């Protein structure tokens, strides 16, 4: 059976990141939050824009004050006060200083700022009580960034700091990639919506909502296509519509052997390449991955936990890579000590749900209480991590290290 690692490689190799002109959108600064930058950003402004003070204090000529001390202060004439936002008018000559505030423009002639705590200011005279470093507390034009260089690279996710940088550069029309479009449907004759009255033998389609929420959380657009009966005509129609309208199609259920053949045949008849139909993992073994010329198809297992685990392990990296982000889409595992004894049959890569809890500043993994059945959605609530036992590993003892996928 295909290993999880090989399945991941097959999937990620099949994903083409958004990168074309029609995939760009122009959005304003706040709308850009969590979007992916589609072109490198260059500014015509230096940062800082001009030499300015990093302190409240006095702008001086270093030469004048280089032998100052508390016992032997240098006395300077204060010729101007320079608050932030004000253009200094008077060049500083030898023996002179300007009162200056944080962020204010340095006056001509001055090269150093003495912080006000190291001065004594009276009338129009300031005593410099300590020798500053040369050019101390001056932020020079272009120290942080020079106009014309790359300010932000293509393919990054725009968070608060990047949005602040774009604003500071006076860029308010931001070129980002469109959101990936993800179609979701559930298949099964037993499924009803949360609004319908349950008849004996029926269950509510919860997967569609779980998957929709996860897709939204990743910043993608969701197309909820509803419940489709285990019926080839209905399935063909829905899949056909989905591949025409989405970059990624997620179905859940319909993975019993007979049903499975249904979906396979439909996918094949619609021109898909089917890459695999099962992965050596638990939960999540019955997983179909297929590609169409313009969309990727995941046939997720119907069991609620299996659907979510395969989403976290395979679909999440797919959506991230497709979104145009330039790196960091792979599932990331961290090594922590297990606070619980973890068990597997050793035949499958086993994913055990639970929590990463902080204890004395160190994360430890706690297995969820209750029955760890792939049909038990209830104890998946309020978990935040999956511990992974590789094939061949049957036991992780308390205190032993284990790899954990943080959710
Ligand atoms: P299947 O993959 O169709 O064989 O379904 C496996 C199990 O998952 C069955 O118990 C189904 O009733 C259940 N199941 C299938 N689809 C869903 C769904 N959309 N929401 C919740 N449970 C489901
Ligand atoms: Mg079914």
Main sheet: strands, sense, barrel = 6 strands, mixed
Q: Low-confidence runs (pLDDT<50, min 5 residues)?
A: none
**Cα-atom Rg, whole angstroms?**
31 Å
Work out the number of β strands.
28
Strand order of the largest sheet: 7-4-6-5-9-8
Helix content: 10-25%
Rough outline: elongated
Distinct ligand kinds:
adenosine monophosphate, magnesium ion
Report, as a whole number of angstroms, the end-to-end distance.
26 Å
**Protein structure class:** alpha/beta
| Overall average pLDDT | 96
Strand content: 25-35%
Give the oligomer, counting copies of the same chain as homo and different chains as hetero: single chain
Discrete helix count:
7
Structural key phrases:
binds magnesium ion; 407 residues; 20% helix; alpha/beta; single chain
Task: Record the SSE blueprint.
Elements: H1 4-14, E1 24-27, E2 41-42, E3 52-53, E4 57-60, H2 62-65, E5 74-82, E6 96-100, E7 112-115, E8 119-122, E9 125-128, E10 138-139, E11 150-152, H3 160-168, E12 174-177, E13 181-187, E14 191-192, E15 203-204, H4 207-217, E16 221-228, H5 232-245, E17 248-252, H6 257-269, E18 273-276, E19 281-282, E20 288-291, E21 296-300, H7 304-322, E22 333-338, E23 342-343, E24 349-359, E25 362-367, E26 385-389, E27 395-396, E28 401-406
Parallel strand pairs: 5-6, 13-16, 13-17, 14-15, 17-21, 19-24, 22-25
Antiparallel strand pairs: 1-12, 2-11, 3-10, 4-6, 4-7, 5-9, 8-9, 18-20, 20-21, 22-28, 23-27, 24-25, 24-26, 26-28
Helix pairs in contact: 1-7, 4-7, 5-6
The structure holds adenosine monophosphate and magnesium ion.
């Amino acid at each position: 059976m295909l290993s999880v690692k090989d399945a991941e490689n097959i999937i990620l190799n099949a994903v083409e990141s958004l990168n074309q002109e029609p995939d760009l959108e122009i959005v304003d600064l706040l709308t850009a939050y969590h979007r992916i930058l589609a072109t490198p950003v260059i500014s015509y402004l230096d940062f800082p824009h001009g030499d300015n003070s990093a302190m409240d204090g006095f702008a001086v000529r270093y030469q004048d004050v280089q032998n100052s001390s508390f016992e032997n202060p240098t006395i300077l004439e204060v010729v101007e006060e320079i608050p932030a936002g004000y253009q200094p008018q008077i060049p500083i000559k030898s023996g002179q200083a300007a009162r200056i505030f944080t962020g204010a423009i340095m006056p001509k002639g001055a090269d150093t700022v003495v912080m006000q705590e190291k001065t004594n200011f009276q009338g129009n005279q300031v005593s410099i009580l300590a020798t500053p470093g040369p050019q101390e507390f001056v932020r020079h034009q272009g120290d942080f960034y020079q106009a014309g260089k790359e300010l932000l690279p293509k393919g990054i996710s725009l968070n608060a700091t990047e949005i602040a940088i774009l604003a500071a550069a006076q860029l308010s029309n931001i070129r980002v990639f469109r959101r990936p479009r993800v179609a979701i449907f559930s298949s099964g004759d037993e499924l009803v919506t949360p609004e319908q009255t349950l008849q004996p033998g029926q269950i509510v389609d919860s997967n569609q909502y779980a998957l929709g929420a996860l897709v939204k959380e990743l910043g993608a657009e969701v197309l909820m296509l509803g419940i489709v009966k285990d019926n080839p005509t209905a399935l063909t129609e829905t899949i056909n519509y989905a591949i025409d309208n989405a970059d990624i199609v997620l179905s859940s259920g319909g993975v019993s052997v007979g049903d499975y053949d249904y979906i396979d045949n439909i996918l094949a008849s619609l021109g898909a390449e089917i890459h695999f139909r099962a992965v050596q993992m638990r939960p999540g073994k019955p997983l179909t991955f297929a590609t169409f010329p313009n969309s990727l198809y995941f046939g997720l297992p119907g069991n609620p936990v299996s659907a979510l685990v395969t989403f976290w392990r395979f679909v999440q990296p797919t959506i991230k890579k497709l979104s145009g982000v330039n790196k960091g889409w792979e599932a990331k595992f961290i090594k922590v000590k297990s606070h619980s004894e973890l068990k597997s049959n050793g035949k499958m890569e086993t994913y055990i749900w639970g929590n990463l809890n902080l204890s004395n500043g160190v994360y430890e993994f706690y297995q969820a209480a209750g029955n760890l059945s792939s049909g038990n959605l209830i104890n998946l609530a309020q978990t935040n991590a999956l511990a992974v036992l590789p094939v061949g590993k049957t036991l992780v003892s308390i205190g032993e290290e284990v790899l954990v996928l943080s959710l």
